[in-house]
Write a structure and sequence with these properties.
By secondary structure, the chain is α+β, with helices and mostly antiparallel strands. Strand 5 and strand 6 form a beta hairpin. Helix 6 packs antiparallel against helix 8. The chain starts with a helix and ends with a helix.
Length: 455
């Protein structure tokens, strides 16, 4: 019991100087990865339309909408920035929580740090604390929460966003506890049906969580109270972990190693702008193409063998509600696009790219199949095997068991710098390098507004 209070007290005590050096290093890499995804998302017309809508609402320009040239009130800025973190499906993630904390926590922390005049050290401190809250909450309900129809990036992310914002607002343990209680009351439902149907509303879940988190923290600062047992619940059976999953929560995950092991070290980063379940196949294919450049006409069939949840979640085509979301969650699409273009980035998600007849035809030659041996490796390994049937009878095979970006094969600084340059479109490479240098020394930045202006 008292899991909510345990997290609130941890957040109140957390200090940048007390964090292990590797936690500090990974936190800054996650910030740089977040900016890469913001730039990538702005390549999508639908996402720019969301940013334009929020611009029309006005609001005191105390927090920047990244890459869009305007500022607004912190909850609105966080809404857009969370949407930008989420939209291209290139965000960081926690495998054993099924969530993407960056989409909620980072925008909430950034907008609050700007409006409060916080420095880089306080921002990073709050961000790491927010990741712990979001990730540990998600781990406590994984996988039953998702199987019950929810997306934890929005639901669990709201708690992390509230914790980060409350810490930056200077709230003590009791204040953060109230913020978490209010966050549970404001959290979005984030229904998985939206994602699985390919509906583009999916991309706002992180933004809504970030916005709700800031609102929860501000209300707590104003004296509004929230249930101090919002996560574990009471005898009324109305707590977050009691009403959002079919089955029992693993509440011990919330306090397990708290303050000793930091979940930011368990995060994977994504080299490709697609669901993580597609990455084994993408990596295998691109490795083969790096060794031998094939013309699409030479490939008679592409067979992708993978584990069960990947077959269910991403083994399908583009579906009736075709969109960039359904493309991100389709092995046939991303494999065909990568074979034609030699990459899988935001450029492969646009409506114009999806309409290419050659890409559509190549998709028809991609088959996704369950492999029992790979299923036995899951969830320890998210393995996929790609087999290319070449004209003339030749067969090329490549299997990837641990896709790049996993903590066991992490994306390091140079990898994320490369992702930033790739996803940034036509932006000046020299300025991108300067931006990366500032992010990787963010604890020395005196005012977060400087970072926001550069993005």
């Amino acid at each position: 019991m008292d899991e909510t209070r345990l997290l609130a007290d941890f957040c109140a005590r957390a200090r940048w100087d007390d964090l292990p050096a590797e936690v500090q290093r990974r936190a800054k890499i996650c910030v740089l990865d977040f900016i890469a995804n913001v730039y990538g998302s702005l390549q999508l017309r639908e996402v720019r339309a969301i940013a334009d809508y929020v611009r029309s609402l006005g609001g005191a320009p105390t927090a920047a909408v990244l890459g869009c040239g305007y500022g607004t009130a912190p909850p609105l800025a966080a809404f857009v920035n969370g949407t930008l973190a989420e939209s291209i499906e290139g965000q960081d993630g926690l495998r054993y929580g099924g969530n993407h904390p960056v989409s909620a926590v980072m925008p909430a922390a950034l907008a609050t740090a700007e409006s409060e005049g916080s420095d880089g050290r306080k921002f990073l401190e709050a961000m790491v604390a927010g990741y712990e809250v979001a990730n540990r909450t998600a781990a406590a309900v994984h996988p039953s929460h998702t199987l019950s129809g929810f997306l934890p990036t929005g639901t669990c992310g709201t708690f992390g966003a509230a914790a980060a914002a409350a810490k930056l607002m200077g709230l003590d343990g009791e204040g953060i506890l109230n913020a978490l209680g209010i966050a549970g009351y404001l959290a979005p439902l984030s229904m998985a049906e939206t994602l699985m149907g390919g509906f583009t509303a999916k991309v706002v879940q992180g933004g809504q969580a970030a916005s709700a988190g800031i609102t929860a923290a501000a209300l707590a600062r104003a004296g509004v109270t929230g249930a101090p047992y919002i996560l574990e619940g009471s005898q009324l059976q109305g707590g977050f972990t009691q009403i959002t999953l079919r089955g029992e929560a693993n509440l011990e995950k919330i306090g397990e190693g708290l303050g000793e092991h930091f979940s930011i070290l368990d995060m994977y980063l994504k080299p490709y702008s697609a669901c993580r379940h597609t990455h084994g196949a993408l990596q295998a294919l691109l490795e083969m193409l790096a060794e031998r450049r094939l013309q699409p006409g030479e490939v008679e069939k592409v067979e992708v063998y993978t584990y069960g949840i990947a077959v269910v979640a991403v083994g399908k085509g583009l579906g009736e509600n075709e969109s960039f979301v359904s493309a991100q969650f389709s092995i046939p699409y991303v494999v065909a696009a990568a074979m034609l273009d030699g990459e899988l980035s935001p450029r492969q998600l646009t409506a114009e790219r999806r309409a290419d007849p050659a890409l559509r035809e190549l998709m028809s030659r991609v088959e996704v199949k369950l492999d029992e041996d790979l299923q036995r490796l899951y969830p320890e390994k998210t393995a996929s095997r790609v087999e290319l049937q070449i004209a003339g009878g030749e067969r090329l095979v490549r299997q990837v068991e641990i896709p790049k970006g996993d903590p066991r094969d992490p994306m390091e600084e140079e990898n994320v710098r490369a992702k930033l340059r790739s996803f940034a479109g036509e932006r000046d490479a020299g300025k991108l390098d300067d931006l990366a240098d500032i992010v990787l020394h963010l604890e020395k930045v005196g005012d977060l507004a400087r970072l926001a202006e550069m993005v």
